[in-house]
Amino acid sequence: MKKQILTWLSVLGILVVLAPRIPTFLQSFPELVHAQDSEDAFWVFDGHMHPVWSVYARGGTLGEANSDGRFTLPLAEQGALGAAFVNTAIDEFLEANHLAVKETLKQFDHFYRELARYPDRIAMATNAAEVRELRRQGKIAAILSIEGALALEGDLGVLRMLHRLGLREMNLVHLLGNSIGDVMHSSENGGKGYGLTEYGRELVAEMNRLGIVIDLSHTAEQTVMDVMNVSTQPVTTTHSAVRALVTSPNIPNWSDEMIRKIADMNGVICVPFLPMAVDQEYQDKFHRGRIRGSALVGLDPLVYQGEAGTIYDFIRERQSGGDAGRARMSIERRKSMPLVSVAIDHIDYIARLVGADHVAISTDFGGYPVNLRGIENAADYQNVAQALLGRGYSRQDVAKIMGENLLRVFDEVVSTAGN
Question: Which domains occur in the chain, in start order?
Fold first, then answer.
């Protein structure tokens, strides 16, 4: 008993000595502290995610988890998410069968209905002033976006109507080349693709006129360079990393030349927390040599070959099979998730190459089934900020990377519309 008392007195003595140093100790290990619970949390603008499409396709609501539990409003609030480009997801199969516009409208409708469930927590924003006002109110700003301009079915009139419904960001190419430009894994022109088409030039001009942010993710290099040569406004790539660090013909990472070009026009490159984009070992293990196509039919003929009137049955069947495969993929690949530090390496590379004003972040929550250890769901954004501080970035530069850079580009694009 006497020995136990002496032991506890020793422990107490150690605690008394260490007590003044405990705050410093905790600062050295930010993963032990929920920075998002602090007034020092950084405001976050996520460049690319699919939370509304996820509940549209998988059930549930923004307030509760479905089979992909990485994004809910409580998690996002815990992580200090302030704004996001909230994407629809339109498959190439839908465009080929003239269902893309209808599906886009259905997903827009779901976007509005989800936001109406939580008016005190999240709202739509169509310009930077509205984002800032929602920030003042403590709400998340949801900016309506489209992944893949194939949603337009080649009609600029559709673009104008979607803009009236709130569309403010769109990427031009998704998983296959289209009438606008080529996809990153192109086999043409030495892998650089066939470049921006005449219709693509008209589309870029109309997006500039309307004030819709152009996203160059997934897009082949020649098309990227062509767009940046003709756009009168800054552009983004919302989920591309650095080709010098991770390379593959199937991964939409950018060369130093492309990164310098987007910086020269005051644009921003969002480093994604996607393992295959930021970690070469993961990319080689799971994605080497895999050419992506339609999520529904792969590289098979896109025009439906079945009996008239059965196409929706076909789509539902393919989607259910895809969901099962996705669940297996998530379990398998979660075992190989890299640390968030590999994404910080890409941010470092870009900041050193062109400055901290031209780099931002994105997650693709609801899209690819896994992320990185340290940013596994929407509660973890502040881990990224702490990692950047640990690399020696100033709080001012961390604030830019976590959100202010992307807000600046959004502001400039919308405010110069029609000029």
Answer: 33-415 (3.20.20.140)
